[in-house]
């Protein structure tokens, strides 16, 4: 029985349902989901938030969030979010997209949404591989990295170089807040939550397009244990995808923390 003098310091977010998540053991999608839910709760925006689910591992994320959701065709989440936000400008609209959804089939959608300065928030989960479809090479797969479609490792002379999406989007005038974070250890999880909160606050202040790229692990398709997969993020992914703020527009520097 809880002592009446004890204070609850950690609880289950109201913005998450009690549904059991179906992600693979060690996958960090669940951590990122929780961070988004905590931010929604802390900002008091649950009743007016609308999420747009992608095609990919998180295709069923509408089962896990206690907010309104729409399901977009593969890669089209930014276009759907644009439509929702323009019709319902008082709503808080966010997309949640993997590297295949955002950086392959959805490349044009995300670039033009950012170029237009759409007042939406994008959570971009980069695990350097196609997760749901069996571990094929993605636009973000590292040079030399083995996948089911590059069993000898990604050959940059044949298949080109990985795309650093945050760096690309940061060049667009319509983008206001573009940052890259990671969830491979507790300290970086805390930094990721702060960045997600900043991104939502940018939207709440009608300050334009915001995106948080999150480096995430995929133990199943990487063929690693969950612990080794977190080390892979630290030792292999971060050197190629450096963490940091890629664009914080002057107009929003008083908004973000």
Write a structural description:
By secondary structure, this protein is of the alpha/beta class. The chain has a single domain, classed as Rossmann fold, CATH 3.40.50. The chain has 9 helices and 7 strands, in the order αββαβααβααβαβααβ. Strands 2-1-3-4-6-5-7 form a 7-stranded mixed β-sheet, with helices on both faces. The longest helix is centred in the last third of the chain and has 19 residues. The mean pLDDT is 95.
CATH superfamily: Thiamin diphosphate (ThDP)-binding fold, Pyr/PP domains
What is the top-level CATH class? Answer: Alpha Beta
Provide the residue-averaged pLDDT.
95
Largest sheet geometry: 7 strands, mixed
- Strand neighbour order, sheet with most strands: 2-1-3-4-6-5-7
Number of strands: 7
Which segments are poorly predicted (pLDDT under 50) over 5 or more consecutive residues?
none
- CATH topology assignment: Rossmann fold
Based on helices, strands and strand pairing, what is the structural class?
Answer: alpha/beta
Give the overall shape: globular
